[in-house]
# Entry
Amino acid sequence: MMNVVDLFLKLLSFKSITPDDADSLRFVEEYLDGYEAIYVNKEGVKNLFLTKNFSEGTHLCFAGHVDVVPAGEGWETNPFAPVIKDGNIYARGAQDMKSGVAAFVQALKDVEDFKGRLSILLTSDEEGDAKYGTVIMLEHLKEINLLPDYCVVAEPTCETIFGDAIKIGRRGSINGYLTIHGKQGHAAYPEKTINPVHQVAPILDKIAGVNLDKGDDNFAPSQIVITDIRGGMEVTNVTPSSLRIMFNVRNSTKTTQKEVKLYIAKVFSKLEYSLELTQGSYPFVTKQDSKLVQQLSKSIMKYTSVETKLSTAGGTSDARFMGAFGIDVVEFGVINDTIHAPNERTSITQVEKLHDIFKDTVAYFNI
# Structure
């Protein structure tokens, strides 16, 4: 049997660029012999759920993705032939996130008994649209009554020191497309036009950088961030017929699309406008007193002597799908400082400790 570093090196050798798993999922299935395999595949995306029911009790799941972004330029070594140098392993996916996959696969390989059910959920489309990835597997698991009680997503979460951060939630992402409608005309006769630029100028500060809530212990305030403003014909003698403003709100659980719509309506009540809102992801948070949060924090302290902070910062991950299904979910993995970059790397020590932490977390649920 391989150790966790051997397994990590093997996983890194699969050129699994989204959504191609490059047969890495079949390898994991064969490596975890004794686990039942369920595949849900769609539109070229493969999703694998491996599960083993030891007895009645808690269902603990580990989740992640085997797909990676393209290597790009600037590598000093072959990005799909892992290289060990100065205690680090270099390859595409080393941090994001085959280190995490290797750690939890090996942790479950080591388990001989468990009070409940253990499982692994892997997808080949996290770095892409994720439309046919983790979410459709969760929908299937709900249909067959196999949704986990707890889930650890092993994304790279640490900031400067291994063990310094657990993600217990994530903000959502609301995209806004606001169009102010005016009346085009000659710049020499502004009285005959309705210039949307002039209309917006006095009230722009009412939306630019405005907080829609006060935040809380888990989340920063939900803020309107303007990302683009454009209008007109790029000439100096014609006023624009409309002005289009694009914005994003990384929203906490305190702000929804409804609140955004009502706020825009209040600010632009005297103007003719249209608004389109879309939501790429929804916010979630796992309570700090969750059994999983508490135990993972203890395991991190045990193996790193670091008091981890509970964070909701950053972008998004497949943990958002877990939260939407009511699963207590956290994210924890290696330091995040070279993901998607040339010469992506992580240290052997981090991978070994991550394996120890996951194994210890599993053991806790047997107490």
